[in-house]
Amino acid sequence: MSNELDQLSTDLRKIISEQNRHLRDAVNESADDIRQKGVQRIAGTINLPRSYIEDRLFVSRRATQRTLEAAIHGLDRPVLLARFDAKQKYTTGKTVPQKNAGVGVRVKASGSEKHMRSAFLLVLKNGALGLATREGKGRGNYRVRHGPSVGQLWRAYINDNDDALDDVAERFMKRLAAYD
Predict the structure, then answer these.
(1) For residue 175, with 0-12 CB atoms within 10 Å meaning exposed, 13-18 middle and 19 or more buried, which class applies?
(2) Model confidence, pTM
(3) Residues 163, 165, 166: CA angle, nearest 5 degrees
(4) What are 38-84's pLDDT values in tens digits?
(5) Quick one: which of 176, 165, 152, 173 has its CA closest to 76?
């Protein structure tokens, strides 16, 4: 009798371990799917390269046998406004052939270009191109402008897309059923 109970206990542990492995795999696959959908949606609505978003949106925690949860995070570092397809504009001057006429920026992928008359492009200390506006008189009296971070865009996507998450939850349940 004792031998049969030990065998039953061992079999039960194997079944639970196998189910946890399938759950872990399903959670991790779903996290990857949700991340990819987020990258596609953000790249479709915001004028940033897909590779830039992919580098800054990641699965920060994967499911394990013990903890069956995953987390997706986007970097909260603001994006330089110059990354949003900024173009220096020029006009003809009275005494010079051309002078600065501001900068055109297109933040939304399907939106029109926003013209910032008092803005200008400059190379920052780290070598990146920045968009700045004057804050007053003087050579160094400017402010570098930023757009939304990938983390902000990710949180906005998650808050607005319950349907997408429902689709992923449905696929998750189908994966679990397939493991049986």
Answers:
(1) middle
(2) 0.77
(3) 60
(4) 999 999 888 899 999 999 999 999 998 888 889 999 999 999 999 98
(5) 152
∠ Cα 154 163 43 (to 5°): 35
Rama region for 136: left / alpha / beta (φ>0; ψ in -120 to 50; rest) = left
Q: What is the pLDDT of residues 82-134, one digit of tens each?
A: 998 888 888 887 887 887 888 988 888 888 888 888 889 899 999 999 999 88
Amino acid at 66: R
57 burial (CB, 10 Å; 0-12 / 13-18 / 19+) is buried
Single-letter amino acid code for the residue at 123? V
CA distance 17 to 11: 10
